[in-house]
Design a protein that fits this description.
Elements: E1 7-11, E2 29-30, E3 35-36, E4 38-44, E5 61-69, H1 71-75, H2 78-89, E6 93-101, H3 107-113, E7 121-125, H4 129-134, H5 143-152, H6 155-158, E8 162-163, E9 166-167, E10 170-175, E11 178-182, H7 194-199, E12 207-211, H8 220-225, H9 247-260, E13 265-267, H10 273-278, E14 282-287, H11 292-299, E15 303-306, E16 310-311, E17 318-319, E18 322-331, H12 338-348, H13 351-361, H14 368-371, H15 374-377, H16 380-391, E19 393-395, H17 400-419, H18 427-439
Parallel strand pairs: 1-4, 5-6, 5-7, 12-13, 12-14, 18-19
Antiparallel strand pairs: 2-3, 4-6, 7-18, 8-9, 10-18, 11-14, 11-15, 16-17
């Protein structure tokens, strides 16, 4: 695995604003969502910490902390700034930092490869929590960390980091998707329903809609929106089974067959969103806040955002319901520097750092005060995400059986529709097979 390595020495007495990177560029592997990279820094926190009022000296402990975070936290400088600030607050520790790029979506996979070699502190998507807990890979949080989650994190996301009354992580931003649209093609009244979106008259080389399942993540919005479930409403009741093969599920699947095969619908993997929107050739697509700046830079004021639309597969209008979760900060249960690791995770999740992360990487805070700030309250992106969470989402199931089966089997449905393996002549048969695979 190639890694981008930088070596820097930080003195704790330096202000955070003076932090600068040094080193030489190297190879970097991985996709935009998950890759690998490494930054090593030594924070000589105790250089002058030994002097006290009575002339005594305080002991300085060498501490090594490995951190896994996504590419955007490195590119924006947020992680380096937070590490420098933390080191300055803790002169009792001489911290050597190793920062490696691992996307939140891939954190669980990388942690479980070798928990002992994994990061002390890592960022991950909340649906991975149960499997991390079951593997004994993530530490249960108590003390100030637990208090912070229970007292300062918004109600809507607190549960994503907890199992029962036990707190295992610190949610730092909302994790869901919403609707983007090109105002030169669609206006606000066009995007309230998928039927209106597809009915809009557009130029021959323009796609009205972009279909992307994200391996089942966005696909779920159609089935859950129509009232269907996997292992019950909460996704944790195995006895409830899966009802996607009932009459409504057949209607939804037939609707998707028509949608995916509609010439005005672009299909993921065949053409990229960025390629289409550069030429104003795409009306509507779904994505998250992590790509907001990319699209804004391309479209400028022509970019619109909103809650995902309704759809009508069987004569009834249903509000599509996207999976909702959070991105969290976790601590490796096998960390050799547990006290420092928990302290740093807590520091990353506090109000100040959630605000900083929002300012530099557009990630909407879960901290109640940070989320209620004037800047966030006036932000249309934040308003859409909050509305999406409240009106057009369902909590993403995190049960280990759901996770081990759903992404494989649900993710195959659009692929088979596109290839013709699922068609209107065999929908019932294919959905029966899906339910059997999910439940046996």
């Amino acid at each position: 695995m190639k890694k981008k390595v930088l070596a820097c020495t930080l003195a704790a007495v330096l202000s955070v604003s003076m932090l600068a990177g040094c080193g030489n560029d190297g190879g970097n592997s991985g996709s935009s969502d998950a890759g690998s990279g490494s930054t090593q820094q030594s924070s000589d926190s105790g250089a002058d910490a030994g002097n006290t009022d009575n002339g005594g000296s305080a002991e300085v402990t060498d501490v090594a902390l490995k951190v896994w975070c996504p590419q955007n936290q490195v590119d924006t400088g947020v992680m380096a700034e937070q590490q420098a600030a933390f080191a300055a607050l803790h002169p009792e520790w001489n911290i050597t930092w190793t920062t490696e790029i691992v996307g939140e979506d891939n954190a669980k996979t990388e942690v479980l490869k070798d928990v002992d070699a994994a990061a002390d502190v890592f960022l991950f998507a909340s649906d991975q929590l149960i499997e991390l807990v079951d593997a004994g890979a993530i530490a249960q949080l108590g003390g100030e960390a637990e208090k912070m989650v229970k007292e300062t994190i918004a109600d809507s996301v607190r549960a994503t980091a907890m199992i029962g009354d036990a707190t295992y992580a610190i949610p730092f931003t909302h994790n869901t998707f919403f609707m983007f649209y090109d105002k030169t093609i669609m206006d606000e009244s066009d995007v309230t329903s998928l039927e209106k979106i597809m009915a809009k008259e557009t130029a021959d080389n323009v796609y009205n809609y972009y279909f992307e399942s994200s391996g089942g993540w966005k696909l779920g919005a159609y089935y859950y929106g129509a009232g269907l479930t996997v292992f019950g409403p909460e996704g944790n009741d195995l006895e409830a089974g899966v009802n996607w093969n009932n009459e409504t599920g057949v209607a939804v699947t037939n609707y998707l067959i028509d949608l995916i095969n509609n010439p005005k619908c672009a299909y993921d993997g065949e053409i990229a969103v960025s390629e289409l929107i550069e030429d104003h050739r795409l009306g509507v697509w779904f994505d998250g806040s992590w790509n907001y700046d990319t699209y804004k830079n391309i479209l400028g004021d022509d970019m619109g955002i909103g809650v995902i639309p309704t759809f009508n597969p069987d004569g009834n209008d249903y509000q599509m319901l996207g999976f909702y979760g959070s991105k969290c900060i976790g601590v490796n249960a096998h960390s050799k520097n547990m006290v420092a690791a928990v302290a740093f995770a807590t520091f990353l999740g506090n109000e100040e750092n959630q605000t900083l992360r929002y300012q530099k990487s557009a990630q909407i805070p879960t901290n109640i005060n940070a989320g209620a700030s004037e800047a966030v309250s006036a932000d249309p992106l934040a308003a859409v995400i909050v509305k999406e969470a409240n009106e057009a989402s369902v909590m993403q199931p995190s049960h280990s059986v759901f996770s081990s089966r759903y992404w494989t089997y649900a993710g195959a449905i659009p692929t088979e529709i596109r290839s013709g393996a699922i068609n209107k002549d065999n929908v019932q048969e294919k959905l029966d097979a899906f339910v059997k695979a999910m439940t046996e």
